Amino acid sequence: MTDEVPGPLVAAGEILNMLNVSRSRFRAIALHPNFPRPFQTLSVGSVWLRSDVEAYIREHRRPKPAADEDEQG
């Protein structure tokens, strides 16, 4: 197989960490029409282009508050 991969790939485990969500929450997010389609589906599961997932996070996820914004003192 000589297909070139256009960048780094990530699987569900990496995406869980990128989104900071549980496995069940990730499954729900992955079904949403805005979430990128897998680059490829292998026998062990799907893989996505890291750049596609990062773009999704920038466009569709709220940024986490800064540490001092959490503390209302």
TrEMBL record:
Q: What is the superkingdom listed in this entry's lineage?
A: Bacteria
Please report the name of this protein according to its UniProt entry: Transcriptional regulator, AlpA family
